[in-house]
Amino acid sequence: MRRITETRLSTRAVLLVGVALGIGNLLYILLASRGHLAIDYVVYDLAGEVALEGGNFYTAVPEGLADYFHYVYPPITVLGFVPLALVGWKVGFAIHTLLTVVAGLAGAWLIVRYVERIGETRLPWLDRGLIAGFVVISVHSMPSLVFGQVNHHMVAALALGFVALDRDREILAGSAFGLAAFVKVFPAAVGVWLLRRRAWRAIAAAVGTAIVGFALGFLVFGVDLSIAYVEHAILPRFSPGEFAGGLDPEATYLTIRRPISVLLPGVDPTFYGLLALVVLAPPIAYLYRTIEDREDRLVSIMGTMVAILVFFPSFPIYVVILYFPLVPLLYLLESGRPRQLLVAGALLASVAIRWDDVEVLLAAADLSSSVLADVLKPAFTFATPGLVGVLLILAGCLLHRQQKYGPQFFEE
After folding, report:
1. What are the tens digits of pLDDT across the range 376-411?
2. Is 224 exposed, middle or buried (0-12, 13-18, 19+ CB in 10 A)?
3. Given CA atoms 196, 199, 204, 209 in this order, what sign does their dihedral have?
4. pLDDT (average), residues 128-148
5. What is the pLDDT confidence band of residue 412, given thresholds at 50, 70 and 90?
6. % the chain with pLDDT above 90
7. Where are the transmembrane segments (predicted)?
8. How far is Cα 66 from Cα 55, in angstroms, rounded to an integer?
């Protein structure tokens, strides 16, 4: 892997844009959408209160919120919110926010140390600060922070997993991946990468971590709440109903299933997942052709994380799972067209707007019935800027692979 050289300026631009948009997002929420402040944390707070009373915290919904605002993590995790429930939601939210920032900074530190170790140079404090800001308060991180989500913890766990695996500490890596998957479920797909690495001890550690977590939940809360977790938190995530007839242009999802559902509105939506797999499997197999050096592995990890993000019906806040290895690649990848695609994709992925946002802007400019609106609506129905940006990142990985090894899928 080469040393860090002339790529730093464009990398700083990507990080700075992400941070600036994140701050803008915060100001918008504080000034115009205060009802969204702590909207996820109040769910966790209520779950902690109900758990103290011995009730079913999977059916508890805070007053004034829709039914889908309920606890969605494994039973044992609620114990992390029980102490916070004892001090009131406002104090609890402040403590939770502080801990979230700490988790984000831990993830940023892992990324910085990785870049410095592989790049064989110490990053200036400006770069360190931008990386920390990007992880903690960028456009995709800020909503998790102000809503009271736990995605910063997931970023830290994933970064720890990849860094530990790079240093052949498979047990630590697997435990970190297993913890992320135990809480959020979809990071379990990182197991595809572990299989490609033949990291058997990491796989065993990941599976063991999840088993222990579920076993503890069963022992502490019993079978009924374990079943409730599956019914109220797991099964609804796999419901394809919203994609029937083509995903609504105002839907939040960032997924390859969006254009698939628009192109094939008459197909049974239960098949969209299979079609997404058919679309994504070949490029990932192509990236997996060889992983002999660290650069190959970083690019393959990038493709893996992009595929995970766009395969599932993901929300834009989950773009944070790309931070490792996106930030290291921006610093370490050789200058050229693949890196240009990565930079362009990272910038475009920061444009977190949907058709309903565009409608507001067009209405403000009195252009709701214009030709521009007629062009933009089908475009945003087919793909959001965020989705296009993420796919550009994948394209950069594929081009890098093609330039380095040629078009063949397998080693000769």
Report:
1. 888 888 999 999 999 999 999 999 999 988 776 555
2. exposed
3. negative
4. 96
5. very low
6. 73
7. 12-31, 91-111, 131-151, 171-195, 202-230, 271-288, 300-324, 379-399
8. 20
d(CA 197, CA 220): 36
Contacts of 72 (CB under 8 A, 6+ apart): 58, 232, 233
Tokens 């999977």 locate to 58
Strand partners, 254: 314
Higher pLDDT, 83 or 411: 83
User: 334: which 2 tokens?
Assistant: 């050789």
Q: Please name the amino acid found at residue 324.
A: F
In DSSP terms, 314 is beta-bridged to: 254
- Please state, as a whole number, how many other Cβ atoms lie within 10 Å of the Cβ of residue 314: 22
Question: 32: which residues sit within 8 A by CB, 6+ positions away?
Answer: none
Helix/strand/coil for 87: coil
Which residues, 6 or more positions from 24, have their beta carbon under 8 angstroms from its beta carbon?
139
Query: Is 285's pLDDT higher than 80?
Result: yes
Of the chain, the end-to-end C-alpha distance in Å amounts to 24
pLDDT value at 65 more than 50 = yes
Alpha carbons 407 and 394: distance in angstroms, whole number:
16
CA distance 158 to 179: 9
Q: Please, which pLDDT band fits residue 115 given cuts at 50, 70 and 90?
A: very high
